[in-house]
C-alpha cells in the first residue's frame, strides 16, 4: 500500500518538544525538562506581548492557546507541553483538539503531586485569577484525593513581579505575606505553586510558609510525565548531541533573554521575535 500522509506517519524521534507559556514562567518547566532529558531539543514559546494571561477571560486565553499551538505544530514538534497553568485550566481541550501529537500539562501534574503529598488533606493552591476562577485545581485534586479540602488564593501580582526579575525583593515579600496569610490560616500542609512563574519565588515562599509546609512545584513532575510518555510512545530522541534549543517571544526578546538566563541558570542563545 502506498504510504499516504495519514496512513503512514514517519516518526522522527529527534523532532523537538514544544513548550509554551505566557512569558518566562514556563522556563521553570523547560529547566526541569533539560535536567531530566538533556538530549531532547526544546522549542520554547513565551507570549510576552500579551502577558499576563492570568487576568484575562477564558475565551481570550483559549484563542491565544490555539494560536501558539498552531505555531509550534508548524515547527514540527513531537509533543506539546502546556507550561502555563492558566492555559491548562481554561484551554486544554482547545490544545488537545488541535494537536495530533501528545499533550502534557502542568496542572494535572501539580494536582497529582499535591494529592500524594498532603497528610492533613488541606491543600493550598496559589494561582492566577483566571485559574482560581476556573475551579480547575479543585476538580483535578478532587479526582485524585476526593477527601481533600482545597483553599485557593489568586495571586495576580506575582507573575508581573517575576517578569520584573524581583524574585527576592521587599515588595515581593510584602505581597507574598498578604497572599499567604489567609491560606496558611486554614492549616494547609501542602501548597501548590499553581502558576509556572511561582517556582521562581520558591525560596521566598518556602521561608514564609515554614518547614511544615510542602511546596509543590509541578515543573519536575511534568518533566517526569514527559519522560514517561516519550518512552511509552517510542519518541525518546536518538541523538546524543547537545541540543540547540530555540526560543520565540512576541515582544522584548532582549529582556526575555536577560531574565530567562536567571531562570535557566545558563545563557540563552538568540531569542526570536514573532510577529503574528
Ligand atoms: N505562567 C502562567 C501560569 O502558569 C500565567 C502567568 C500569567 O500570564 O498571568 O498560569
State the main characteristics.
single chain; 276 residues; alpha/beta; Rossmann fold; 2 domains; four-stranded parallel beta sheet; 11 helices; 10 strands; 45% helix; disordered N terminus; binds D-glutamic acid
Question: What report would you give on this structure?
Answer:
There is one protein chain. The protein is an alpha/beta fold. It folds into two domains: 142 residues, 3-Layer(aba) Sandwich (Rossmann fold); 111 residues, 3-Layer(aba) Sandwich (Rossmann fold), CATH 3.40.50. Helix content is 45%, strand content 16%. It has eleven helices and ten strands. A six-stranded parallel beta sheet has the order 4-3-1-2-9-10, sandwiched between helices. It has a four-stranded parallel beta sheet with strand order 6-5-7-8, with helices on both faces. Strand 3, helix 3 and strand 4 form a beta-alpha-beta unit. Helix 2 packs across helix 3 and helix 8 packs across helix 9. The N terminus is likely disordered. The site of D-glutamic acid (DGL) has 17 residues, from helix 3.
Q: Quick gist of this model?
A:
This protein is of the alpha/beta class and 276 residues long. Helices cover 45% and strands 16% of the residues.
